[in-house]
Write a structure and sequence with these properties.
single chain; about 210 residues; mainly alpha; Methane Monooxygenase Hydroxylase, Chain G, domain 1; 8 helices; about 80% helix
């Protein structure tokens, strides 16, 4: 059981996670519709997320200085800061995707058959589960996510094969396919960050890092 102040920190991290999920959905919508204006809004709207992450850091330092937490509560403070940092990284990756969406909007002939949305949806589901496991201290749910990254990697490599197969068909579209590669890589990197969130949750609950 966490004290009110430490519970407040975890609530702040969960709120940050909610903002990341909102931006994730908006980025995926912009990609599927090739909406450059929505992508630009996502790219320019990153300041609120960064400010929330800094506030988590500030509050955590205050807790460490004034309350000297130990055991579960110390782990909660450490993990809260780490997960906030991971969420900020995800936010940066979403900004990178938004930039590439703006670029691919200049290449309307790009194939819509590339399975990046499927990858993005799978990563989104894992992100939601990871944040839920953290918010509700569900170690078993976090543990299950540690193996989910294999499916993400499989989808990512399949997308690379799709893109490389399409590239020779039209040389004028090569820059657009490079942007798609970068988008897919960012989603794969977000998947890695989700695994790290799950690892931190297991550490918070069990006091050990999963093997």
């Amino acid at each position: 059981m966490l004290t009110n102040d430490v519970a407040q920190l975890t609530a702040m991290v969960s709120q940050l996670g909610g903002l990341v999920e909102t931006r994730y959905r908006a980025t995926l919508d912009a990609f599927q519709s090739r909406d450059s204006e929505q992508a630009a809004a996502i790219r320019l709207g990153d300041k609120a997320l960064n400010a929330m992450q800094r506030e988590v850091d500030r509050y955590a330092l205050q807790l460490l200085a004034l309350q000297h937490p130990y055991a579960l509560e110390l782990r909660a403070v450490i993990v809260g800061v780490r997960i906030a940092g991971l969420l900020e990284q995800i936010g940066d990756l979403l900004v990178g995707i938004a930039r590439r969406i703006e670029s691919i909007s200049l290449h309307p002939k790009l194939s819509q058959a590339i399975a990046i949305p499927n990858l993005a949806i799978a990563v989104q589901a894992n992100l939601t589960q990871a944040l839920d496991a953290f918010s509700h201290l569900r170690g078993d749910e976090a543990q299950r996510l540690l193996d989910a990254d294999d499916e993400i990697d499989t989808q990512y490599h399949a997308i690379m094969k799709q893109i490389f197969a399409k590239m020779p068909e039209d040389a004028s579209l090569l820059p657009g396919y490079v942007y798609l590669i970068q988008i897919a890589k960012n989603y794969e990197n977000i998947g890695d960050s989700v695994v790290h969130i799950a690892q931190q949750t297991v550490f918070l609950i069990d006091g050990r890092y999963p093997a």
